Amino acid sequence: MGPQSPTSESLGRLLTDLYSQPGVCGACLQVRDMVLIHDLPYSDDRIAGLAKRIDRLIAGYENVGRSIWQICAGFEKYRLLILCRSNTRLTILLKPEIDPALIAGRATRLLMEVDIPEPAMAQPPPPDHPVETAAPIAVAIPDGVPREDFERLVVGLLGRVTGTATATKLIQRELASKNGALVFPKEEARKMGLAVLENIPNRGKRESLVSEFLNALNS
Amino acid sequence: MTVGLLETKESVHIRLGANREIVSADDLVFESQHQEESRTMIHEFEYLSDYLDDFTLSLSMGKPQFVSVTELGRQTTFRYEADGGQAIVLTRAHRGVETALQKTSS
Hints:
The complex is a heterodimer.
Chain A lengths: L7 H12 L4 E8 L2 E5 L5 H19 L5 E8 L3 E7 L2 E7 L5 H14 L30 E3 H12 L5 H12 L7 E3 H12 L5 H16 L1
Antiparallel strand pairs in A: 1-2, 1-5, 3-4, 4-5, 6-7
Helix pairs in contact in A: 4-5, 4-6, 4-7, 5-6, 6-7
Chain B lengths: L10 E6 L5 E4 L9 H25 L4 E8 L2 E7 L5 E6 L5 H9 L1
Antiparallel strand pairs in B: 1-2, 1-5, 3-4, 4-5
């Protein structure tokens, strides 16, 4: 069967088919952080929160150029199998005695059968490479932050919770749209720094590093 | 992701203590050209653990036991040991979670 446009009916069939497999307790299909359909034994609000966290988890990998196919997390009571295809994530709740590989094969095939378009509200991904522009010129901006100082500061902070290569990649991604500017207005530097530090999943560590970043920026 | 640690080996093992210090690991991990990648994997464990703790609370899943991440050309499995330690096994190919877990416990 070739790809089909998703309808509530076809999506429902997909989940019903999965649910009929032994050991499957439910599933959730999402595009980015938007839930399309789910039959997991939790409230819709809780599933909406789960979908956001799963999307953020996957985005953390995508932001550093790693395209994830599958994540399988094992817990005392259940296993959580997350399959990724483009912007679509299929999360399946399994009993721990079930081999996830058995379900993953079937779920992947089902996921391939449903062609889910990008939602209209989704933003296009940022370019992989900086936009080609004329040679950058350093412009004196009152209260400006030199790019080099900005990168050193943020890499130093982010490098405490991730590898230096990962930190550098995240910053380069954020700076890709800045057309090679050598100095940033302080407000712009503040926004960019906060956007990069937002990738730190642990709230406590994130808030601590954000505070340190703002102090350094204002000193 | 570069081939890095998997360039010459089919699988790479790291065993961590309760504070995520390396207790034992394949010799390759300590070679200078691979230290950054090894450190990134340890940070990746921390990154994933934050999410697993979150799933534990929000979905009442019980304590995390392992997490396995599969991508093009590599699979990384992170395991929580009973004594509070942790183990990482990196393999070239997708081996199935059960196989990867057996590898980490050896």
